[in-house]
Specification:
The chain is built from 3 helices and 4 strands, in the order αααββββ. It is α+β, with helices and mostly antiparallel strands.
């Protein structure tokens, strides 16, 4: 990760959009926005060990789908743009 990207400021519109998306996702998952934010941060942390990702392009959504028994179950979809795969052994 480039250290300058860490300190890069987002414009207020981008921040508001991210907060709204997080609120909508957390509402669908029936959990707090704080929990959804922690999930997102954990995913970024783990995936960043192996790949350089576009954090601004990250999109996490929770939807519902029918399980084999016919009940509706929550499903997590993550769209994570990959810039580069790290070659660690």
């Amino acid at each position: 990760m480039n250290i300058l990207e860490f300190f890069k400021r987002k414009n207020s519109g981008s921040v508001a959009k991210d907060r709204l998306k997080l609120l909508l996702v957390s509402d669908r998952a029936n959990c707090s926005p704080e929990i959804m934010d922690m999930i997102k941060n954990d995913m970024i942390h783990v995936i960043s060990k192996y790949m350089d990702i576009d954090r601004d392009g990250l999109d996490i959504q929770i939807s519902q789908t029918k399980a084999e028994d016919g009940h509706l179950v929550p499903v997590l979809f993550a769209n994570i743009p990959i810039r580069e795969i790290k070659n660690k052994i």
